[in-house]
Amino acid sequence: MIRINLLGVPRKTRGKRASTSVSMPGEGSSSMVLGLIVFLGLFAGMAFSYMWVTRQHETLQKDFQRAIAENQRLAEVKVKYEASKRKADLFERRVRVIDELKEAQKGPMNLLNLVADTVNKTDAVWLDAMTDDGKALDFTGMALSADAVADLMSNLRKTGAFKTVEIKETSQDASVKDLQAFKFELICEISKSNKVQSKS
Q1: Shortest CA distance to 120 belongs to which of 190, 191, 199, 189?
Q2: What is the pLDDT along the chain (200 residues), one digit of tens a residue?
Q3: Exposed/middle/buried for 113, CB within 10 Å: 0-12, 13-18, 19+?
Q4: DSSP letters for 143-193
């Protein structure tokens, strides 16, 4: 049988009995306080971690929503840009076509101006018609003499616009009674090496 000394004064043991340790009145409560402190510390740490993770999650959610909104805005901007680019490309193509048409018109206009100037500088010749097949010009006209036709052919060669100037047909016009008149037809092959320019 074990006896407990409630007064806290150690008693002398008789014989060789082993002394029994007795817990002091405040030791159990201090262990509980320490455990409670540790528990509260862990709880506080977990609560802080939870709050930090929650704030990070909210921040990431806001950033994600902003990124989605920005992506949508950029998508709209891209659509508007592509629409504007298509309009600009269409306008540029139209301008290019108009420029090409203008350039294409310059050639025949310059050639007509050149022929008209050459005929005006040649005495006693008139043109009735002219056709252009892209490779050669075919003239029909009237002259007061064979020399006038020869002068016209010489003047056309001097322009450098034609590779060859040949007479296809010439005949006296019987319908003109008061004057000697000749009908003529010339074929002029357009030169590819020389640019045709209008001359004043």
Answers
A1: 199
A2: 555 555 555 555 555 554 454 455 555 678 888 888 888 889 888 989 899 999 999 999 999 999 999 999 999 999 999 999 999 999 899 888 888 777 665 556 777 888 888 888 988 898 888 888 878 889 899 898 888 989 999 999 998 888 999 988 777 766 666 667 888 999 999 887 544 443 33
A3: middle
A4: ESSHHHHHHHHHHHHHTS-EEEEEEEEEEE-TT-SSS--EEEEEEEEEPSS
Quote the pTM value: 0.44
Q: Is 90 helix (H, G, I), strand (E, B) or coil?
A: helix
Whether 132 and 111 have beta carbons less than 8 Å apart is answered as yes
Q: With respect to CATH, is domain 125-190 assigned 3.30.1660?
A: yes
Q: Order of strands, edge to edge, in the sheet holding 125-132? A: 125-132, 136-143, 182-190, 162-172
Q: Is 21 left (phi over 0), alpha (psi -120 to 50) or beta?
A: beta
Sign of CA dihedral 177, 181, 187, 188: negative
CB-CB contact of 127 with 139 (8 Å): yes
Strands (DSSP E) found in the chain: 125-132, 136-143, 162-172, 182-190
Q: Which residue has the tokens 């504007």?
A: 84
